[in-house]
């Protein structure tokens, strides 16, 4: 698959955990919780290979897109569910996928400010209050999913935003809300490389051996 600069950098974050996969006897379970049309899941599948995927999004229509893209990418076995993550997780989710995941990817809904070099008209129409709207949404989503990272598992938070409030400040929020440990965070500046700017932060949960 041809990847742009920012996707390559996210792939490098995923590579950091690849060596963990053979150690998980019951398979490596990934939940792409804001899956959209599946870009990050496809990336994770390409990088990590032998994984069990669960995907969810609030929009059923985008999950239909995902289904098509997954087929093209050769991903045939996965769970898919429509979920609004501003609400506590439904029983349906757990009956389908069990209680926890080895990796949760949260490519959060955001201002999209990292894409404005491609779409300058969005910058023109942008209202600053939108930042607060998205940070409130991001916090709600994070609070509802964060406890679902398995012991020894990982949490990958991603945005295509340039704003500290959606990026570094959300990292602080995640650290406050959980016992996760930050492994690495980075803003991948893309505008000088004809790519979107993205932010990624990778966290891990202590394994039972560490406690
Ligand atoms: C940045 S996009 C994800 C892009 C996707 N990961 C990809 O690579 O193609 C964020 C996604 O979050 C979803 N979303 C927004 N609000 C949500 C909510 N309350 N619960 C779950 N998903 C939500 C949107 O529908 C959107 O598809």
Fold topology:
Blueprint: H1 5-15, E1 28-32, H2 39-48, E2 51-57, H3 60-73, E3 78-82, H4 91-97, E4 101-107, H5 120-125, H6 129-145, E5 149-159, H7 168-177, E6 181-188, E7 198-204
Parallel strand pairs: 1-2, 1-4, 2-3, 4-5
Antiparallel strand pairs: 5-7, 6-7
Descriptive report:
- This protein is globular.
- It contains seven helices and seven strands.
- It has a single domain (5-12, 28-210), classed as 3-Layer(aba) Sandwich (Rossmann fold).
- Helix 1 (5-15) packs across helix 2.
- Helices cover 36% and strands 24% of the residues.
- The chain has 211 residues and is of the alpha/beta class.
- The longest helix is centred in the middle third of the chain and has 17 residues, at 129-145.
- It has a seven-stranded mixed sheet with strand order 3-2-1-4-5-7-6, sandwiched between helices.
- It binds S-adenosylmethionine.
- The site of S-adenosylmethionine has 18 residues, from helix 2.
For the termini, the CA-CA separation is 40 Å
Number of helices: 7
Order of helices and strands: HEHEHEHEHHEHEE
Query: At CATH's second level, what is the architecture?
Result: 3-Layer(aba) Sandwich
Q: Supply the helix-strand structural class.
A: alpha/beta
CATH superfamily: Vaccinia Virus protein VP39
Sheet with the most strands, sense and barrel status:
7 strands, mixed
CATH class: Alpha Beta
Give the fraction of residues assigned to helices.
25-40%
Classify the beta-strand content into a percent band. Answer: 15-25%
Q: Provide the number of structural domains.
A: 1
Strand order in the largest sheet? 3-2-1-4-5-7-6
């Amino acid at each position: 698959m041809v990847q742009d600069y920012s996707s390559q950098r996210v792939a490098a974050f995923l590579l950091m955990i690849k060596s963990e996969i053979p150690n998980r006897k019951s398979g490596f379970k990934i939940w792409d919780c804001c899956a959209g049309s599946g870009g990050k899941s496809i990336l994770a599948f390409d990088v990590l290979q032998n994984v069990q995927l669960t995907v969810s999004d609030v929009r059923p229509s985008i999950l239909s897109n995902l289904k098509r893209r997954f087929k093209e990418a050769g991903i045939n076995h996965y769970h898919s569910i429509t979920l609004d993550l501003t609400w506590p997780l439904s029983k349906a989710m757990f009956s389908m996928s069990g209680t926890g995941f080895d990796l949760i990817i949260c490519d959060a809904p955001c201002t999209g400010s990292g894409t404005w070099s491609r779409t300058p008209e969005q910058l023109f129409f942008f209202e600053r209050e939108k930042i607060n709207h998205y940070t409130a949404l991001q916090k709600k989503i994070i609070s509802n999913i964060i406890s679902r990272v398995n012991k020894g598992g990982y949490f990958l938070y991603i945005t295509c935003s340039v704003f500290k409030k959606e990026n570094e400040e959300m990292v602080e929020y995640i650290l406050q809300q959980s016992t996760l440990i930050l492994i690495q965070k980075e803003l991948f500046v893309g505008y000088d490389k004809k790519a979107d700017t993205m932010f990624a932060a990778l966290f891990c949960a202590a394994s039972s051996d560490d406690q």
